[in-house]
Amino acid sequence: MKRVTILGSTGSIGRSALNVIARHGDKFRVVGLTAHKNVDLLLRQIEEFKPEVVAVSDERTAHEIKKKVQIPVLQGQEGLCQVASHENSDFVLSAIVGFAGLLPTLSAIKAGKTIGLANKETLVIAGDIVIREARASGSKILPVDSEHSAVLQCLEGRNRRFLRRIILTASGGPFVGKTVEELKYVTPEDALKHPSWNMGKKITVDSATLMNKGLEVIEAHYLFDLEPERIDVLIHPQSIIHSIVEFNDGCSIAQMSVPDMRAAIAYALSYPERIDDVVPPLDLPSIGKLTFESPDLKSFPCLSYAYDALRDGGTMPAVLNAANEVAVASFLDGKIGFNDIPAIIKNTMDSCEKADVEGIEAVIKADDWARNKAQELINYIAVR
Ligand code: NAD
Ligand code: MG
Q1: pLDDT tens per residue across span 4-18
Q2: Best label site of 1, 196, 244, 374, fewest CB within 10 Å?
Q3: For ligand 1, which residues put their CB under 6 angstroms from it?
């Protein structure tokens, strides 16, 4: 029986994970759950999965939950970190969105847990620190991002010496094929209509700008220890092939399944085994056609900014991530246009003095600086 904690249990990934766990009660037991503000859903999850402990991000939400349950309800960043490192869990699914996931995930890593990593931002913001801490504690990091799960599945049991490059596939989002001019007028509602995946709002916008793929390039660099030149991106709108690995002889291996995150979540949860009937098998005749194209960096420059940040190193990936989080939130609030997202990120990165990452404080400082800078630029756009 694997003892599982889910950070961000009320989100899209958290709910999918609990769906897998509910169907395999003989294999998994829930130890801890954390959420932000969705009290009703967290209460229903507590009732169904009977965790030993939960945490929420603020005091008011904690107070509301405490009135209705008998188990310990922790709060704030410290509470989230305590649940993440709880002694009774073996496996921690890191599924909080954005920077808020960093410290709880690091806390689970320092405690030597096996991590199912959905919160790619953690590796983008502090990849060197995360990998160093995981080595020190013996924590194993298993990808939950479908592309990285695909790469892991393709590489499993093979000699890394023969690996030439990996190719991360991207659906391209709802705006694939649009020009910069056409993108000027797209709305948050348009951006949230993802053609193949059903996800939280932030990652859905990241998918539309191609920043999601940029963050995934940085994530792949840390997970698979590959230089940026050996990580490529390919647009594949059907989202059936989740990624490809290419070997030195020119042969490639791809991993395929229907676009359903439960496949990657279950692979991490049960690794190195597989569990029965997680997703419906592929019906290729009914899919008919798989298509591919190169990413359009003119319309979707966020992908190149992520490569730039990775090559620059130091705190630059943290700056890229923070500017993106602030810009996406403002776009969703209707304060800026779609094309302002890459403009704000580029401008923030250009104004930033590159700094080395000595410890987590440097990363937190860079995040804070970039958030303020991006907000300043947004305020300027808003009064224009
Ligand atoms: P979501 O918005 O649906 O859920 C986010 C979760 O984080 C919720 O449980 C919410 O309560 C919690 N949360 C939000 N802000 C918080 C805060 N300040 N403090 C503490 N908790 C907070 O997001 P999602 O789509 O499930 O994505 C979660 C992570 O997984 C992201 O990093 C995303 O990039 C990654 N991911 C998601 C998918 C997907 O299909 N949804 C696929 C690959 C990777
Ligand atoms: Mg992905």
Answers
A1: 999 999 999 999 999
A2: 1
A3: 8-14, 35-36, 38, 57, 95-97, 100, 118-121, 145, 197, 199-200, 203, 261
